[in-house]
Amino acid sequence: MGIYGALSSAVTGLRAQAHALENISGNIANSQTTGYKRIETDFLDLIPDAPIRRQVPGAVLAQSRGTNDVKGDIKTVANETFIALNSNGFFVVEPKNGQADGDGTFAGTNFYTRRGDFEIDKDGLLVNGAGYYLKGLAIDPATGNVSGSAPAVIKLSNAFLPAQQTTRINYQANLPQLPKTDAYKASVPNSELMRAGDYLPSTFTPARSTSTTAFTATPASMVGQSLTIAISGTAFNYNFYSAAAGAPPANNASNMYIDTDGKTVAQVLAEVQTHMQGRPNGAGSTVAIPATGTDAGKLQITMPTNSGFTMTASASAGLSTSFNTTPPVSSVPNGTPVNAISANQNAQFLTNTIPAGSITVYAQNGAPAEVTMRWAKVDSATSTPPGSDTWHLYYMSNGNAAGTETQWTRVNETFQFAANGSLAAPAGGATTLTGLNINGVGVGDVELRYDTNGLTQFADVNGKANTSTLNQNGYGAGEFVSVAINDNGRVVATYSNGERIDMAQVVTANFNAINSLKRLDGGVFASTSESGEAILDLTGEGIMGGALEASNTDISDEFTKLIVTQQAYAASTRIVSAADKMLQEALNMIR
């Protein structure tokens, strides 16, 4: 090749360095362009065909190489519709291709970009600074799930958000094993319970045992005899003795010894009554011989009306008396449902119950209603006789009730707990509040969902219900306020009622050969046969809301390459000068 070959190689070097200079200048010019990907220059040597011992380096060819796989710095911004990608993917975008009836039209062609400075235009579309419109998938507002699989230009609506009726309340809480209501007293057994007899109509006959014949015993004839009184199955013996005859055995858990010396029968029975009233569940009981009425002269032992406890009596043979239980011993059993609490019972109800939380629900037209709930423990495994840990749940159905009008309504379910604190019944984890109506606002049927392990009864020193979950799925109507794109790629609209509704899912695209995409104006790329088709990601992975990706151009690196390129270009010009002189010398040989 000789001098001409050297001259030709020098020219290709000049062209290659000029191409590199063009790339460097473009990179520097776009150092502040959002999402810009710099272009590197690769040099390819072209070796002429020749025998091995005659080979020469040959010419050079400059090629451009993309850096689409190199991320730029990500910076946070205040605009909530700006987004960046912390992955090698691209946003799917499309430009307008015309106008029809005042609205933009789109051809359905996908382009790809890392430029995420999207803002809402006059038509409710998200467009970036280069004029490309963001594409994604619509979201079903009822389920919150993505619908469809083909990305389309995202269009936002600023329409009024219609109300959604409440159909479900999610509720989870721990109820204290011992509720410390305002009526609770540590010294009074079962004072933590709400007794049904205090609220139901007084139709229950008090528990009573009456001797079948007149009680004719005298203090002297009572000596050596006994009277046995059982309250709710727990019996206690009252033994009569004469102190003159000697000291009696010591009192114990089931026996008491009463001296009859110098006392009347009435005084002896008064001591029995006093002790009986101090026994567990014996408050309000009486032991007496009525002076008038059909039972005059008979020994009569009576529990207070609606006490909630049963009672029976018997006597030793020497007292020459027996007892009947006519009418049958009766009272309001612990756990008897009280389905409604009237306004005039409200004060007592509040002292017998503990707060269960409060939540606003919504009717079909968006009317709000406040559901205030309270728990009442109505039976206990530690009561006498032992029952089961049972609770009833109430909600205030009419806060304006007066007199005998219903103010609190019981949820139609009985909640029972096992010894380990887990919910034993009911099964299923949910119950329905049928026809829920609060202060005249008809909400309709609402599912109260507490799930399998949502309600527990563990010991709590505070004695209060600890609510861990309380929410519902309804809301009132609201006016459009703003829109944002979150870190999951969801386009979320915010309304004046506080609701945030997912409107669309941003779609991203990945490529097997990311650096083989074709670069177009505005920081967008098109797929090529070398890059392969786009692999769409519908999960929003890698999307960062309120952020932008900067150019991946490093100014200091570009200036370093600029110096090297300049020197290489200058060196190539020296080769041209040297080849020119050598050609002149060759020509001078014939002069």
Describe the structure.
The chain is α+β, with helices and mostly antiparallel strands. Helices cover 15% and strands 34% of the residues. It contains five helices and 41 strands. The strands form ten sheets. Strands 5, 8, 11, 12, 33, 34, 35, 36, 37, 38 and 39 form an eleven-stranded antiparallel beta sheet that branches. Helix 1 (2-29) runs antiparallel to helix 5. The two termini are 24 Å apart.
Short note summarizing the structure:
The protein is of the alpha+beta class and 591 residues long. The relative contact order is 0.20.
Quick one: overall form?
Answer: rod-shaped
User: Major beta sheet, specifics?
Assistant: 11 strands, antiparallel
The percent range for strand residues is: 25-35%
CA-atom Rg in angstroms: 46 Å
Mean pLDDT over all positions: 89
How are the elements arranged and paired?
Blueprint: H1 2-29, E1 39-46, E2 59-66, E3 74-76, E4 83-85, E5 90-94, E6 98-100, E7 103-105, E8 111-113, E9 119-120, E10 126-127, E11 133-138, E12 152-153, E13 168-174, E14 208-214, H2 219-222, E15 226-231, E16 234-241, E17 255-259, H3 265-278, E18 286-288, E19 298-302, E20 311-315, E21 323-324, E22 340-342, H4 346-352, E23 354-362, E24 368-379, E25 389-396, E26 406-410, E27 415-417, E28 423-425, E29 430-438, E30 441-449, E31 455-456, E32 466-472, E33 480-485, E34 490-495, E35 500-506, E36 508-510, E37 518-520, E38 524-526, E39 535-537, E40 543-545, E41 547-549, H5 555-588
